[in-house]
Amino acid sequence: MTPGSGERTLPALFEESVSKFPDHPFLLEKIDGKYRLLTYRETREYVLRFAAGLVSMGIRRGDRIALVAEGRALWVIAALYRRTL
User: Is residue 2 part of a domain?
Assistant: First the structure.
């Protein structure tokens, strides 16, 4: 389904927000003692790059992966990637 089609999943809501608020703040993460802000648009770019990386490794829709990481922006990016495969 496309954004605005009535689907109310987190990835669908995220895509809707990217189209409405591309340059608004979305994620704030502390890295090496400094805070880094990501906008909706920047986060979407990371999601697409993350998904492309998985596809390049042979991961396809329906495959299962595990993510081992600290509680960081990567968790949000990984949760949103499935919409792009």
Answer: no
Specify the number of domains making up the chain. 1
Q: Helix-strand-coil percent breakdown of the chain, rounded to 5?
A: 45, 15, 40
> 3-class SS at 35?
strand
Q: What is the pLDDT of residues 7-36, one digit of tens each?
A: 688 888 999 999 999 999 999 999 899 999
Residue 18 sits in a domain whose CATH number is 3.40.50.980
Q: What is the spatial distance between Cα 17 and Cα 43, in angstroms, rounded to a whole number?
A: 11
For 28, other C-beta atoms within 10 Å of its C-beta total: 10
Domain carrying residue 68: 10-84
Q: What's the predicted TM-score (pTM) here? A: 0.79
